[in-house]
Design brief:
Number of strands: 35
Shape: globular
Structural class: mainly beta
CATH superfamily of the largest domain: Kelch-type beta propeller
Largest sheet: 8 strands, mixed
Radius of gyration: 33 Å
Strand content: 25-35%
Number of domains: 2
Strand order of the largest sheet: 2-3-4-5-1-32-31-30
Number of helices: 4
CATH class of the largest domain: Mainly Beta
CATH architecture of the largest domain: 6 Propeller
């Protein structure tokens, strides 16, 4: 096992906890940035290119018939193939957190449409589900199993927000373990079915799941309810007969108490487990080999790499599978770095260079390696951990198309926890929902003064009815500090005067006294 340092070039602000990577034909794509996508890459999907130990990013595009895919952190991902031995595959993306910290219950199917040295095109489709649809969650896993010539998706674990009926002001945004139910999803018909198994008593999140044929092995994970890392090893077997599917669970000996671990595949039957945390205040520096043969699993300890002093003494670490026996690891950068949020990145290769030329392996892996958000659990689980993978030998990228971090706007000026005015009293540590439409962030409205800026609706003393009316109406709003200025700068509207037609003067009646006989024809001419 070898360890190699990699440096990020002008894009470290996007490498935040919870993002994912998609590997298409040996090329790795970044997905799930922390903020909303900007104009430099509206899709939020980037090609990761590593050359000469430097990482660069190139924006990718979506086809016109694609749905909108928000940047999701901590989702569950896996590959979907037409059959167990098919070379073509798509990615399934389920759940995760949006930049507003809302949880998603949607499921997307993402495929690569076209790729060349200048442009990369994806297609993303949202799949409609029916039946026992899994609730919105994050930190869970999804796998594909194959049985009797058919395939089905399996979702397990994760965390979600406390139900609305159970929320209090003090714990409004707290999270809980999802129920330990197993969900089967048939993508052909969009049907979901849930199974409650007696062997699964506690909810798990940030665990590792490895699938092979019709069997899934679930290892480790963290339980919020008990604040423990499960030492159990679960074996889920899915049978797909002509009728209803059958799911069985068996608890096996030889598990490992670990959370946020990383799994990479080194051969058709062998995997390597690295990283993670074994307790609240201790990283797990030991590596293990996982061997799957004849419907059996064996977990044995293997030689660990020569960890650097920075890795050994850091408080937290993070990483994800790169594919083909390689793992990308990272630790927070030192305060002396020019970029405060920069991280040190390492590539860990778990097999020899000659083995890297083997064909892509077909076994399915789903490793939820990202950790919880601050406040969710333990100190290590609250770390600045993100999910990352990359292919060291990517194709050449035109530097002119490389993503430039300087093009991005400063999100600190447009966030929810800004000081919007002199009278602003919104504090992230003490804020509680004020309007019925608020959940985990304060309602904001755009002031149209100058270039425009966002203000908190509560600081502007807006009633809920007025806020709803302004959000629905197509009118400009001016905050309390700019409303008087705006009125003074307004130019009086030009009044259009109607042109009045002059009226003809009325003729006065004339009284004539006739003293002599007059003909009637003469009288008519006289008064005409």
């Amino acid at each position: 096992m070898s360890l190699q340092l990699v440096s990020a070039v002008s894009n470290s602000s996007l490498l935040q906890p919870g993002f994912s990577l998609l590997n298409f034909d040996g090329h790795v794509f970044f997905f799930g940035q922390k903020g909303w996508p900007k104009r430099s890459c509206p899709t939020g999907v980037f090609l990761l290119d590593i050359k000469q130990n430097e990482l660069k990013m190139k924006p990718a595009a979506f086809s016109k018939d694609s749905c909108y895919l928000p940047p999701l952190r901590y989702p569950a991902l896996c590959t979907l193939r037409g059959s167990a031995d098919s070379d073509e595959y798509q990615y399934i993306i389920h759940g995760g957190k949006t930049p507003n910290n809302d949880l998603s219950d949607k499921i997307y199917i993402m495929s690569l449409v076209s790729k060349n040295s200048k442009k990369i095109m994806f297609q993303c489709i949202e799949k409609d589900l029916d039946g026992d649809v899994p609730e919105a969650r994050y930190g869970h896993t999804i796998n594909i199993v194959h049985s009797r010539g058919k395939s089905i998706s399996v979702i397990f674990g994760g965390r979600s927000y406390t139900p609305l009926a159970q929320r209090t002001t003090e714990k409004w945004n707290s999270v809980v373990d999802c129920l330990p139910a197993v969900f089967l999803i048939d993508f052909e018909f969009g049907c979901c079915t849930s199974y409650i198994l007696s062997e699964l008593q506690d909810g798990l999140s940030f665990h590792v799941s490895v699938a092979r044929n019709d069997t899934i092995y679930i290892l480790g994970g963290h339980s919020l309810q008990n604040n423990t890392r499960s030492p159990s090893l679960y074996k889920l077997k899915v049978d797909l007969p002509l009728g209803s599917p059958a799911v069985t669970c068996t608890i096996l000996p030889g598990g490992i108490s670990v959370s946020s671990a990383i799994v990479t595949q080194t051969s058709d039957t062998e995997f390597v487990l690295v990283g993670g945390y074994q307790s609240d205040n201790q990283k797990r520096l030991v590596c293990n080999s996982i061997v799957l043969e004849d419907n059996k699993i064996a977990i044995v300890e293997r030689a660990s790499p020569d960890w650097t002093p920075d890795i050994k003494h850091c408080r937290m670490w993070f990483g994800c599978d790169m594919g083909k026996g390689s793992v990308l690891l990272g630790i927070p950068g030192a305060n002396k770095q020019l970029i405060s949020d920069a991280n040190y990145l390492y590539i860990l290769r778990c097999k020899g260079a000659e083995e890297d030329k083997e064909e892509e392996l077909t076994a399915q892996i789903c490793s939820q390696t990202s950790t919880e958000d601050p406040g969710d659990s333990t100190p290590f689980e609250d770390s600045e951990e993100f999910c990352f993978s990359a292919e060291a030998n990517s194709f050449d990228v035109d530097d002119s198309d490389t993503y430039n971090e300087d093009d991005e706007e400063d999100e600190s000026e447009t966030g929810y926890w800004i000081t919007c005015s002199a009278s602003c009293n919104i504090d992230i540590n003490t804020w509680v929902p004020f309007y019925s439409t608020e959940l985990n962030k304060p309602a904001m409205i755009l002031c149209s003064s100058g270039a425009g800026h966002w203000v908190h609706a509560q600081c502007m003393d807006l009633s809920e009815s007025m806020l709803l009316r302004l959000s629905e109406a197509n009118v400009k709003y001016f905050c309390n500090e700019h409303v008087d200025l705006n009125k003074g700068l307004q130019t009086p509207k030009k009044v259009v005067h109607l042109k009045k037609q002059p009226m003809k003067p009325l003729r006065k009646k004339t009284t004539m006294k006739l003293t002599m006989p007059v003909k009637k024809s003469f009288l008519r001419r006289l008064f005409e």
